[in-house]
Write a structure and sequence with these properties.
Layout lengths: L1 E3 L6 H15 L3 E5 L5 H10 L9 H25 L3 E5 L2 H11 L4 H12 L7 E5 L2 H10 L12 H17 L3 E5 L4 H15 L1 H4 L5
Parallel strand pairs: 1-3, 1-4, 2-3, 4-5
The chain binds adenosine-5'-triphosphate and magnesium ion (MG).
The site of magnesium ion has 3 residues, from helix 1.
């Protein structure tokens, strides 16, 4: 399962709360984040996200994320799934469709084809898109004192297009569910639980509350 959404939507917070829930239920899981999670992925993350001074063409940006994804799938995701654990991923392919497709304006079909190569055809059971207005996400980041990364510095229009992309993709694709990300972390977590119990009942049948 994958948590998605714009910056500050609460992905990392909800991933941790979801992990705590699985732990309490006795379901083995691993929590990961893209584009990090592997040594080469962290190095790529440092170039593509943490250096606002760099000018990176959209195609280069796409290839960097996909390069990190290949390593993530091989080194992290597949071994976790082969062990029979639940994988909670903080971002995956849907981020690429939303950011590089809708946000940067690269051709979506092309992006999908290249992503299929990078991900080796691996697709998650479900994407939960934490749906929050861009400015609310920004306000949360600001309140936490987080400085803007390179993508956030791409401007309001860029992130608006990303948010719109997520909502559009959720309307057309099978395995995407929007979750209202407003309210307290606990309120959002309660919604996440509801969606997961409904969509993946066999996984969560052993969770008593
Ligand atoms: N429901 C919430 N209400 C208020 N603040 C929240 C909520 N959820 C998370 N936060 C806070 O907002 C900030 C951003 O949350 P978080 O890091 O989980 O978002 P994210 O989607 O992972 O962001 P990024 O895309 O930058 O990784 C954090 O400081 C977090 O503590
Ligand atoms: Mg995060």
């Amino acid at each position: 399962m994958v948590l998605e959404g714009v910056e500050g939507a609460g992905k990392s917070t909800q991933a941790r709360m979801l992990g705590d829930w699985l732990e309490a239920c006795g379901i083995p899981f691993t929590l990961t984040r893209e584009p990090g999670g592997t040594e080469v992925g962290e190095a790529i993350r440092n170039v593509v996200q943490d250096r606002p001074e760099l000018t990176i063409p959209p195609e280069t940006e796409l290839l960097l994320y996909l390069a990190a994804r290949t390593a993530f799938v091989k080194e992290v995701a597949l071994p976790v799934l082969e062990r029979g654990e639940v994988l909670i991923a903080d971002r995956f392919s849907l981020s690429t469709y939303a950011y590089q497709g809708y946000g940067r304006g690269l051709d979506l079909d092309q992006v999908r084809r290249m992503d299929r190569f990078a991900a080796g055809g691996l697709a998650p059971d479900i994407y939960l898109v934490l749906d929050l207005p861009v400015e609310e996400g920004r306000a949360r980041q600001k309140a936490a004192g987080k400085r803007e990364d390179r993508l956030e510095s791409s401007g309001e229009g860029f992130l608006e297009a990303v948010g719109k992309g997520y909502r559009e993709l959720a309307r057309t694709e099978e395995n995407i569910r929007l979750v209202d990300a407003r309210g307290t972390p606990l309120e959002v977590h309660t919604r996440v639980r509801e969606v997961l119990r409904r969509e993946l009942p066999e996984t969560f049948v052993i969770c008593k509350d």
